[in-house]
Amino acid sequence: MQDLQSSHSKPAGNRFNGKVWDFVVLMLLGVFWGLSFSLARMSTETGLHPLAINYWTCLISAVMLILYCLIARQPLPLQKNFILLYVICGILGSVVPGTLYFYAASQVSAGVLSITIATVPLATFVGAAIFKIEKASLLRVVGVLFGIGSIALLVLPDTSMPDPSAALWVLVMVIAAACYAIENLVIAARMPTDVNVFVVVTGMLIAATIMLTPVLWITDTFTWISWPLDRSGWAIVMMAGITASAYGGFYYLVVRAGPVFASQCAYVVTLAGVLWGILIYGEAHSTWVWASLVVMIIALSLVRPRDSANAS
């Protein structure tokens, strides 16, 4: 982006304000995305199949963003490179991880669902270093290590997780989180800097909806949402709204501050997800969980946006 490329000539105060804005966006994304885990659990209460839940979430999100594009007069780019981006991000950001999370949502608590998202920064950091998308810094390494420590505090003690038998589902959710990490790197490497990020999210969700449609019919898992909307239906609509807005904000943050910093949103999502689970479902957590949340906050404070002079 032009403003990033020329930011090295701006006063230090403007650069500081820019970093403050990065953190504000990061925190808002984390709080609202954290709510989605309680909503995911809520959406499974009436027995809707995970594939159907994911399908309706993607479809409603796509409709919301199509309306935005029409109102804002933002055409959807249909060049080959954009279509490829839509498909890849649709698979890595919605089709695979969304379905896995909805499968897990009926088996584990909202707090545990949100905790697994903290594996995204580690995978993103490793991938960014391997492909030289970003240079490693000591603070980022330490921040990621603190993130690993926060997960260890949750998984290793026998009395930490609400249900120790959920280890298999934790593994499934880690696979989903790895998809998000790969998506981060794809966005950083392939996202054009002169395009409205919400338009790209629109294309991604349309692609995800199209890909999920034959899967639902083949597996005979298509189900209509009940009308008038029940608690599960409202949860799906709210998740769709969060998806439509948060994904655009996240893509914006990846382009603006880099994939490693943007992935630290996962720590805020984890903290918010645990707190939303307590507020909505009255989930009880051990001392280990609260200790891990403190470590996550420390991890977040050690990660800063990349220097604009090094922005690609």
Overall description:
By secondary structure, the protein is an all-alpha fold. The protein has one domain. It is built from 13 helices and no strands. Helix 2 (12-43) packs antiparallel against helix 10 and helix 3 (50-71) packs across helix 10 (231-257).
Primary descriptors:
312 residues, mainly alpha, single chain
Radius of gyration: 19 Å
Contiguous uncertain segments of 5+ residues: 1-11, 307-312
Number of helices: 13
Q: Specify the structural class.
A: mainly alpha
Determine the mean pLDDT: 80
Please, how many domains? 1
Helix fraction, binned, reads over 70%
Strand fraction equals under 5%
How does the overall form come out from the CA principal axes? globular
Largest sheet: none
Number of strands: 0
Q: Give the helices and strands as they follow along the chain.
A: HHHHHHHHHHHHH
Taking the alpha carbons of the first and last residues, their distance comes to: 9 Å
What's this, in brief?
With 312 residues, this protein is mainly α. The protein has 13 helices and no strands. The chain has one domain.
